[in-house]
Amino acid sequence: MIRIFLLFSVATFLLSGCIDLLQQTKTKDDDLQSVKKQVEELRGERADRNVTIDDLRVRVQLVAGEIDSTRYSTDQKLADLDTRFRSIEERLGKIEDQFNALDATQRGSKEVSAEDLWEDGQKYYNSQKYTDAILKYEELKTRFPGYKDLPRVYLQQARAFAKIGKTKEAKLFYNKVRELYPKSREAKEAESEIKALK
Predict the structure, then answer these.
(1) Best exposed site among 1, 13, 22, 185 by fewest CB in 10 Å?
(2) Cβ neighbours of residue 125 under 8 Å, at least 6 residues apart?
């Protein structure tokens, strides 16, 4: 009986050791499953990252391709514009040469005199084109600063300014006649006409 009891005790002891070992194995197995699951999750994340990185690489290559295409297109357009610009410059040069030749021909055929400019100014004035008259008188003064009838030119400019309502400018030219040619008939006329403006 003691033997049976001993056998039973040993068997119980061994069985309890087996149960402990079985529980430890189960715990280890659970730990192993947990680690495997974490490894799989990490692999999935890594795969996702790799896919994302690959997507980014593809996008970078696409953008680089678009940049190259745009750069090429821009270079082509700039080259076309440069060609057009040179063509326009050549045509302008030809037109300028033709204009200069025409101008030289006209000058050779008829040189404009101070009297011509005076008459043109008077025609504009009498046609009530006062601004054109002012410009023509100014051209006469500029081209022929020694013209004998400059007092008359200044007086007509003053009158033209008065006609278009530019009183300040009219007074300026009336005073110019009085200052530059104080003893002239035009200076006396300017003095009386400037009083009428006030």
Answers:
(1) 1
(2) 133, 156, 159, 160
pLDDT tens digit string along 113-159? 999 999 999 999 999 999 999 999 999 999 999 999 999 999 999 99
| CATH code (residue 161) | 1.25.40.10
The H or E element spanning position 24 is helix 2-109
Q: How many CB atoms lie under 10 A from the CB of residue 187?
A: 20
Provide the number of structural domains found in the chain.
Answer: 1
- What burial letters (b/e) apply to 116-140, b meaning 16+ CB within 10 Å? ebbebbeebbeeeebebbbbbbeeb
Output the pLDDT for position 97: 67
Rounded Cα distance, 171 and 185, in Å: 17
With respect to residue 79, please indicate whether it lies within any of the assigned structural domains. Answer: no
C-alpha span between 169 and 193 (Å, rounded): 13
99 is a domain residue: no
User: Which structural domain, as residue segments, surrounds residue 181?
Assistant: 114-197
CA distance 136 to 144: 12
Classify residue 108: in a domain, yes or no.
Answer: no
Collapsing DSSP states into helix, strand and coil, what is residue 176?
A: helix
